[in-house]
Design a protein that fits this description.
Shape of chain A: globular
Helix content of chain B: 25-40%
Strand content of chain A: under 5%
CATH topology of chain A: MetI-like fold
CATH class of chain A: Mainly Alpha
CATH superfamily of the largest domain in chain B: Periplasmic binding protein-like II
CATH architecture of the largest domain in chain B: 3-Layer(aba) Sandwich
Largest sheet of chain B: 11 strands, mixed
Number of helices of chain B: 14
CATH topology of the largest domain in chain B: D-Maltodextrin-Binding Protein, domain 2
Mean pLDDT of chain A: 90
Oligomer: heterodimer
CATH class of the largest domain in chain B: Alpha Beta
CATH architecture of chain A: Orthogonal Bundle
Shape of chain B: globular
Low-confidence stretches of chain A: none
Chain lengths: 297, 400
């Protein structure tokens, strides 16, 4: 009897996590993997008007790769995504550090404000930057009032600079939270110990803090890179005449021209590009052994 | 605060997207007698009688599933009709016209939509996709109220050559050059004026590939639905020059208005009289719109019955109601557009009535015709897909 109960208990132990994971797994299969698989198939079919048909072909990929326009938009995506991600991480790191070790009683309030910033709509943030950077915006008006300029500074808006500023602003809170969580296991006493052992602030950052946050920083970097590179709304509002990114071609294919096969192929080409970036970052972490850095509690 | 912003943005997106579907079929001149051209303008005149008896609107009931632009469900103008018939509307709003065919094709007719709208240039595409149903004119007595032009078969926009009706035109408009008089002192008389050095970096234009192509083709003297591949290069060359004058493409027509009201642009290629009103709503009453000497193009939207509609009578009753002179005028007022119903004009407020010269519609439409979209497939003419791709290319090649 006791053996039976023990067996059941063991079974429960094994089955428990599976049962808990089952709904999410099922949801992922039905709502994510299955549509993705369907579009993978679409990408190898022949495009018809708002439809796909036989025969199977690799032409969608060769056309996507051979298109000058796609390559140009792909380069735009790469530049905007990489710069936005790098700047967001560089800005977020000191904020996360301050929150973890120096914010004191301000910590809860600042964390609340960071989370609350998610409530602001995406479009509102974009328009807010318009009102800051525009010809009659806050900066230009302020500088004019101060007598520092006669004409508005045109380079502030409708270019990549404005796009990257807005994307960094949009994704910075996510990155701060990820890095803050990455620093959480590192107790202040460890930094004090390093200091007692003669490590200056540069050494403490280089040998203690950065190795510890390398993995979460890489995750945040990829997160911002993927979302920024695939964004096609912000560049349209702030990016000037040639600010489009590759994502717009996916939208045009699916909705505008009804060429599902071409749209699917561009989507999977982008996905492949993102996976390559992921693999490169993972490889970099492994080669530098930063992927193994753990902080024992 | 953010709610206010969102409402502001939403409203602009809605109203102006109207324009982006502006379209495309050559208006045949001198069309023959129409089914409904004899319609009187007198409300007391009896409904047209056919061999099947007098036309009569069906009784509406239940829920109508609507798929189109926000605002095109004209909630306020139809308020009394919905209350009288105890009808409810479940609306699905779109962000651009192409979403309609995309959703209808994706659902395979099983989407449950009862009523859609289409911009006249999309008629051939919708027929090719087989996503709209013929309409029973016996259930649309208010068709008699239409202006002769909108009641006619011209262009086959709403009536096929064999007399089959596919749409009920209920709102329309023309485009032009829109300026902010605070910074542009005199209205340009030609589209080419926008290429002058004084407007460098001060032009805005909406991200509307087909609309911009249609306008540029018209300016160069081509029919956008039959523009040869060689002439297509000239059209895109003109668009390149326009884009080079701008400081960015506005993603929506509303955004183009916002750029002008905020002082980031002074003049709009593919502007629209309604932008004057949108700007006035935002407190800027210095917008003006005019059609230059080369003319422009017009757009008209029609209600239609999608395949798979399961509340057909209610949809037909809705379409019929939209042609009531008061309802039609109220819709035009809300949307800052044109009426398709002759008696609707007298119900318009002065600022909306003055948008278009109803007393000489033929001349207006001759100067700014309704066009068809570029063809889906053609070895001879620039196709719809080539317009989309070409537009992205000229944008990408523009100087930053």
């Amino acid at each position: 009897m006791a053996g039976g109960q023990g067996g059941r208990s063991q079974l429960m132990k094994r089955a428990g996590p599976l049962a808990l994971a089952a709904p999410a797994t099922l949801g992922l299969l039905v709502f994510f993997i299955a549509p993705l698989a369907a579009f993978a198939v679409y990408s190898f079919l022949t495009g018809a008007l708002y439809d796909v048909k036989a025969p199977l072909t690799f032409e969608n990929y060769t056309e996507a790769a051979g298109s000058d326009l796609n390559r140009q938009l792909g380069r735009n995506s790469l530049v905007v995504g990489a710069l936005s991600a790098l700047i967001a991480v560089v800005f977020a790191l000191p904020i996360a550090y301050w929150l973890r070790y120096a914010a004191g009683r301000w910590r809860a309030l600042v964390l609340f404000l960071i989370v609350a910033s998610f409530l602001a709509s995406y479009l509102v943030r974009i328009y807010a930057w318009r009102s800051i950077l525009g010809g009659n915006g806050l900066i230009n008006r302020g500088l004019t009032e101060l007598g520092l300029i006669d004409q508005p500074l045109d380079f502030l808006l409708y270019n990549r600079f404005a796009v990257i500023i807005a994307l960094v602003h949009i994704y910075l809170p996510y990155v701060v939270l990820v890095l803050y969580a990455g620093l959480a296991p590192l107790q202040p006493s460890y930094l004090e110990t390093a200091q007692d052992l003669g490590a200056g602030w540069v050494q403490r950052w280089r040998r203690v803090i950065l190795p510890l946050v390398a993995a979460p920083a890489a995750s945040a970097l990829l997160f911002v890179f993927v979302l920024s590179a695939a964004d096609y709304v912000t560049p349209q509002f702030l990016g000037g005449t040639n600010g489009a990114l590759l994502g717009v071609q996916v939208q045009v294919s699916f909705v505008g021209t009804g060429d599902y096969a071409a749209g699917a192929a561009i989507s999977f080409a982008m996905l492949a590009g993102f996976l390559v970036c992921y693999a490169l970052i993972a490889l970099g972490l492994r080669l530098t052994r930063l992927d193994r850095v753990r902080f024992a509690a | 605060m953010s709610g206010g912003w969102e409402r502001y943005i939403r409203e602009y997106n809605t109203r102006r997207q109207f324009l982006r579907r502006a379209g495309f079929v050559t208006m045949a001149v001198g069309a023959g007698p129409t089914l409904l051209a004899a319609c009187g303008s007198d409300d007391d005149e009896p409904a047209e009688t056919t061999a099947s008896g007098p036309a009569k609107a069906p009784k509406a009931s239940g829920r109508i599933d609507y798929l189109s632009w926000e605002g095109y469900d004209i909630p306020d103008p139809l308020k009394a009709w919905k209350a009288d018939n105890e009808v409810t509307v479940k609306a699905t709003y779109i962000a651009n016209h192409d979403e309609i065919q995309a959703k209808l094709k994706a659902s395979g007719g099983a989407g449950g939509y009862d009523i859609i709208t289409y911009y006249q240039g999309y008629k051939p595409l919708y027929q090719e996709l087989d996503i709209i149903e013929p309409l029973d004119e016996q259930k649309l007595p208010n068709l008699k109220n239409l202006f002769p032009y909108f009641a006619s078969k011209e262009g086959s926009f709403w009536i096929d050559p064999d007399g089959t009706r596919t749409g009920v035109p209920w709102t329309w408009g023309s485009i032009g050059i829109t300026i902010d008089k605070r910074r542009v002192k005199s209205m340009p008389t030609s589209w080419y004026d926008l290429l002058e050095p004084e407007f460098k970096g001060r032009v805005t234009l909406p991200d509307d590939p087909v609309g911009s192509f249609t306008l540029a083709a018209h300016v160069l003297g081509f029919d956008p639905s039959e523009t040869s591949k060689a002439d297509g290069k000239k059209v895109f060359d003109l668009l390149s020059q326009v884009i080079a004058q701008s400081n960015g493409i506005a993603p929506t027509f509303g955004d183009a208005t916002t750029k002008m009201t905020s002082g980031d642009a002074d003049i709009c290629w593919q502007g629209w009289a309604a932008m004057n009103q949108f700007a006035a709503d935002a407190g800027v009453k210095t917008f003006a719109t005019a059609v230059p000497k080369e003319g422009s193009f017009s757009f008209c939207d029609a209600y239609a019955l999608p395949k798979g509609a399961d509340n057909v009578d209610s949809s037909l009753s809705w379409m019929n109601e939209s042609l009531d002179p008061k309802v039609n005028a109220e819709a035009a007022t809300v949307l800052v557009g044109g009426v398709t119903v002759e008696d609707g004009v007298k119900n318009l407020p002065a600022n909306v009535a003055s948008l278009y010269k109803y007393e000489d519609l033929d001349s207006l439409l001759e100067r700014s015709p309704f066009y068809n979209n570029p063809p889906v497939e053609s070895d001879e003419f620039v196709t719809f897909e080539e317009v989309q791709t070409g537009w992205q290319e000229v944008k990408a090649d523009a100087p930053s």
